[in-house]
Amino acid sequence: MVAVAIGLLVHQQRLEQVADGSRAEALAQLARVRQVYALTGRVDEGDAEAALDSLAVPEPLRRAALEGRRTTYLDLSSDHPEVWAARPVGGHVLSVRKPLDEESREMAEFDRQLMVSGAGVVVLAALGGALLAGRLSRELRTAAATARRISQGELDARIGGPAPVGGRDEVAELGAAVDTMAATLQSRLEAEQRFTADVAHELRTPLTGLHTAAELLPPGRPSELVRDRVQALRTLTEDLLEVARLDAEVERPDLETRPLGPLVAGIVRRAGEDVGLTGADEETAVRTDARRLERVLANLIGNARRHGGGKVEVRVAGCAVTVRDHGDGFPERLLREGPRRFLTGAAERGQGTGLGLTIAFGQAQVIGARVRLRNAADGGAEAQVRLPAADTAAQH
């Protein structure tokens, strides 16, 4: 658009120059013819450009001359452009005509060169713009990919682009800001993880002593309450240590191939009699860590038992295990954002630390499984654990 606008402007300026020059030449020629006519009383018939009362004079020019004015008339729209000049002479109209065929060809050549030059400028500008836009696009895509990696838990991901040297580079500033944000976030999360691990570790020794002392108390209701609370504290401490290990990504699974149905049946038997099981004969082979899978299912069953209503149901189908209760279902915030430690999601879900689901998700990630939370159409909460099939895991 800029090239077209500049081209039109230059074309118009050049056209005005040609028109002004042609009018000036026609007036100069008219003055010479007027001098010859004043001396000789006639117009040289050999001069085809000059005439007295010529019928070819354009009508607007003729009327202006009869009114006593000396003027010019420019015609650039015809196939043979020309310029006229005329003036009154004793009741007659003295006129000269100057063809502009040469000037027309020069204008055509000038326009052609202008178009070629404009096209060249446009091509160069497009190439430069494409290179610049491509560089900016690559840097922005890199920043977006790094931000996605950070959001997925890869806190040491960095854009690492060159810092701006002189002037302003907004993309480099964005990259530096994202890197600074990621470094700050990483340091804060690592400090939180260290704090959680340190607190849980430091609590183990006094809790062990407290548990031993509680066992020495005489039988009775107060002793039972003390032992119950001490056991709750020990469970919380062990959960915190497990969360800290999961956060640090130091857990390594001991994978083996097992039929899923019998494996889940053993886990359900150890979970208690209030858990129903269907699909115990499912022979689909999965590659998993049995101990960690039991930890995942035990936490899901415990969560369903604590917050749900009625009998807890476990269903095995293919490579998936579904744990269902018949309570009020998962809160929308939990379904939208996923489990958060020390947050149960809603008051109607009852009391709890929120670590059960956090540990279940973390241990499932260690063994390569996926946990999906949803609410059943006829009421109740469902948590589905999908395990990798043995043949698929072997290919990976």
UniProtKB/TrEMBL annotation:
Listed EC numbers: 2.7.13.3
Alphabetically ordered keywords of this record: Kinase, Membrane, Phosphoprotein, Transferase, Transmembrane, Transmembrane helix, Two-component regulatory system
GO cellular component terms, A-Z: plasma membrane
Domain HAMP intervals: 134-190
Reactions it catalyzes: ATP + protein L-histidine = ADP + protein N-phospho-L-histidine
CDD domains: HAMP, HisKA
Enzyme class: transferase
Domain named Histidine kinase: residues: 198-391
Molecular function GO labels: phosphorelay sensor kinase activity
Keyword Nucleotide-binding: no
Superkingdom per UniProt: Bacteria
Stretches of the chain forming a coiled coil according to its record: none
PANTHER family: SENSOR HISTIDINE KINASE TRCS (PTHR45436:SF5), SENSOR HISTIDINE KINASE YKOH (PTHR45436)
Protein name per Swiss-Prot or TrEMBL: histidine kinase
Organism, as annotated: Streptomyces yokosukanensis
Record lineage: Bacteria, Bacillati, Actinomycetota, Actinomycetes, Kitasatosporales
